[in-house]
Amino acid sequence: MTDRSPLLDPLGWPRWLARDAERRRLVEPEALSSIEQSVRDFPAAAFTAGLLPIPLPVERVEKLPRGEVRDTADGVRIRFRAQNTPGETRGWVLGNGLVIGMNQATMRPIHVPVARGDSAALRLDGVVVRALISGWEPYPPPVEVELEHNRSVPTDEYLRRVLAGRGRP
Fold it and tell me: Are 108 and 13 in contact (CB under 8 A)?
């Protein structure tokens, strides 16, 4: 099973993309092209460093038997079980919202609602979710990668750190 901890939650992606759009306005076009080139070069460099891509996770739901349906304290009805499965897209989940696919582009998850109304799904790790990852789509590479404690690092530098640390920035 793929570790989901480096992925942003469904509500985190729009905020993260909005912050990146603001940063993108302040950066010179040459810097943007340098970042795009570092993302395009990453798959070849990762293979050279021995970092292999993994299938990016997608989630499937299965309906719970009637006896297992229950309500949470905040009124959400759990009617489904969410299971993490390997998707068709392969890439590197580098943490802090940065995922690079084999197609030499940054990828973001496509979230879809579990079901209409007040229904939700329960993951195997015990987390209740209202949206699932149904697939992955390319998007422009972020200008910076956000680290803990409100720090950020330029994306090209972050990728160099990942390759130098063989997977750990």
Answer: yes
